[in-house]
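In this supplementary section we document a worked example of the pipeline. Step one takes a protein sequence of length 203 as its only input; no multiple sequence alignment statistics are reported here. Step two produces a three-dimensional model, which step three serialises into structure tokens for compact storage. The input and output of this example are shown verbatim.
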Amino acid sequence: MQKTVVIIDDSPISRATLGGALKRLGFEVIGEGASGAEAVHLAHKLEPDVLFLAVGLPDMDGLTVAAHILETLPIPILVLSSHLDQELIQRAKEAGVMAYLLKPLREEELLPAIELAISRFEEFNALRKENADLKRILEDRKLIERAKGILMERERISEQQAFSRIQKTSMNMRRSMAEIAQAILLSEAVTAGRSTAPVAGVP
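The serialised model returned by step three reads:
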């Protein structure tokens, strides 16, 4: 399937040169712009497979734009710069940019750079998803542990019995054990709230 590209560069000549090279390489250029504001708008509107973003833009710094886009829209971004600058390279890394390319671009270097950027991006995304899943699993375990403690104290049952009750309820109701644990915690909070609420007419 043809990969889609958006190009953001305030130089019409640079946009035309890069766009022509990308089309010859089999990419579809679905949007072009000359400012940071256009970059943000087009990225979110078109959600391209790849975004080329010049560092020097008239309204804002390209790396600031990249960081802003990546906060809400994970896409591979390749930045374009007319000079090699270690500070810019470091900022590009911190922003989450996948490649730093120097102008004038050489067409024979484009395809390997894009493929490497996409590959790095996919690896990064997989790792981020794995970390998010692990975090969710740990949070779910904490919920279940707290719910078990409540059942053990309230029902005077063992830890295994409390776990089995949560597990069985989860299967019967077709809900995750974390959801059942959350319901138990909520019920306990409501009960505790009632027990500490003042009785009408009693000071």
